[in-house]
Amino acid sequence: MGKKMTFEVAMNRLEQIVQQLEQGRLDLEEAIKIFEEGMALYRQCQAQLQEAEKKIETLVKTDEGFKLDLMEVEA
Amino acid sequence: MDRFDFQLAEYQQETLRTQPLTVSRLTQQIKILLETGLAPVWLTGEISNFKRHTSGHFYFSLKDEYAQIPCVMWAGRNRNLYFLPQDGMQVLVYGQVTVYEKRGYYQLEVWEMQPAGVGALQMAFEQLKQRLRAEGLFDEAHKVPLPPFPQRVGIITSPTGAAIRDLVSILRRRWPGMRIILRPVKVQGAGAAEEIAQAIAEFNAFGDVDVLIVGRGGGSLEDLWAFNEEVVARAIFDSEIPVVSAVGHEIDFSISDFVADVRAATPSAAAELVAPDAAEVRRQLQHLVHKMQLHLQRFMQMQRERLNRFVSSYGLRQPLDLVRQRSQQLDDLQRRLLLAAQNRVQAWRQQLNAQRQRLQALSHQSILQRGFAIVYRATPDFEPARELVREAGQLQAGDPIHIQFAVGSAGAKVEKVTK
């Protein structure tokens, strides 16, 4: 897992925020805080959806472990 | 039989008696007779008393309703069998009758064997399926759900061919941000199964993929066979990473399909199972945000309502009532104050009137009534000027004056002034 929150974690958190807001048991400050967090997650997910990988890698076993080589595949 | 023949026979009998064969010699003769006299045969029958010796050789009998024949299949021959013979199985074998001299019996040395009716591969498939199912390798309990949004997918298939092209193009189209890591393998022929199993193990050692797709495009049962081998099934079962099996076409089922976490009918279907549809996810995301905004609005509305309810609650109403009562009191007081003030003014006004009346009573009019008159300086036409004449010295002879009586007035001219 990278530094960036994975898409799945972000989506789950967003769901959670919607539920929390739905239940309405927060005080106003909290509600606005998590709403803002939710918007940030939304933007992050959107950005991740825009990103496109072009390369395909191949898994190669070496003496030290594994390495990834780039591979040409016409898609 | 004539006499000569009889004598010859008798002589021979005598010779055979005096020079008897050894057991080995006779057995030798039987062996030569049988092994050269009978050509290799195709034989069909039911297996019974099947034993697999630790040496790897198979020992069994083939029988039908009336007879049976012992059979042996040497390890070197049975190694390439796709299936394991079992008692009760109808088989078709090809082999040669031989004699086992030590035990003094004949047997069929089996060179090839296939199940009668169904094909050998089919038989092997069913057998392995049954065995692995009994062992629990297909149990639902072992199946792991696929990650909903994988970031990296590992693919184990041939680097050439339609399967990898289909996989890559569909994965890219549906979920563009995902990394695709291929571990190229041979998918058919000798050693393919071992390579595939090795690749699965390597991805697990590498660890950094969220899901594995193992498969190949369509082909004959023989072509797809690697995916029906136990070594592949066990590697899939042992995989910590969820595995999608995608072998051949819709109609092809392989052992790997049963043991995998998810079976995909084709490589293309595997790609669709693994990669979420970005367009759909985008819609979902927007829906979530919309819901969030809606809930926040509703939440604010609720807070407002709560506040209102709070303000109008009984607890707060008490002091509020007090305030209202005080305010009402104040209004009352103010009203009374005004009223009082008005009354006061009225009273003053009345007093004032009375005073005025008293004043009036004291005014010159009443003196005039008593017979006095007031003298004003006057204009030449005897209109009174405002100057009262108090002293005779104010006047000179000839000045017009105005004399005010209690009733009426008169104009006059001063004739004489006495100081």
Sheet/helix structural class of chain A: alpha+beta
Helical content class of chain B? 40-55%
Strand order of the largest sheet of chain A: 1-2
As a whole number of angstroms, the C-alpha radius of gyration of chain A is 19 Å
Indicate the proportion of strand residues of chain B.
15-25%
- List low-pLDDT spans of chain B: none
Distance between the termini of chain B: 232 Å
Q: What structural class do you assign from the helix and strand content of chain B?
A: alpha/beta
Number of strands of chain A: 2
> What is the count of β-strands of chain B?
14
Terminal-residue CA separation of chain A: 27 Å
Fold and architecture overview:
- The complex is a heterodimer of chains A (75) and B (419).
- Chain A is α+β, with helices and mostly antiparallel strands and 75 residues long.
- Chain A is built from 2 helices and 2 strands; from the N terminus they run ααββ.
- Chain A has a two-stranded antiparallel ribbon.
- Chain B is of the alpha/beta class.
- Chain B starts with a helix and ends in a 6-residue tail after the last strand.
- In chain B, the strands form 3 sheets. In chain B, strands 1-2-3-5-4 form a 5-stranded mixed β-barrel. In chain B, strands 7-6-8-9-10 form a 5-stranded parallel beta sheet, sandwiched between helices.
- Chains A and B meet through helix 1, helix 2, strand 1 and strand 2 of A and helix 5, strand 7, helix 6 and helix 10 of B.
- Strand 1 of chain A pairs parallel with strand 7 (179-184) of chain B, so a sheet runs across the interface.
In a few lines, what is going on in this structure?
By secondary structure, chain A is α+β, with helices and mostly antiparallel strands.
Write the layout of secondary structure elements.
The complex is a heterodimer of chains A (75) and B (419).
Chain A: H1 7-23, H2 28-50, E1 56-61, E2 66-71
Antiparallel strand pairs in A: 1-2
Helix pairs in contact in A: 1-2
Chain B: H1 3-18, H2 23-37, E1 41-52, E2 58-63, E3 68-73, H3 75-78, E4 90-100, E5 105-115, H4 120-135, E6 152-157, H5 162-174, E7 179-184, H6 192-206, E8 211-216, H7 230-238, E9 243-247, H8 255-259, E10 262-264, H9 267-274, H10 278-311, H11 314-362, H12 364-369, E11 374-378, E12 384-388, E13 400-404, E14 409-413
Parallel strand pairs in B: 3-5, 6-7, 6-8, 8-9, 9-10
Antiparallel strand pairs in B: 1-2, 1-4, 2-3, 4-5, 11-12, 11-13, 13-14
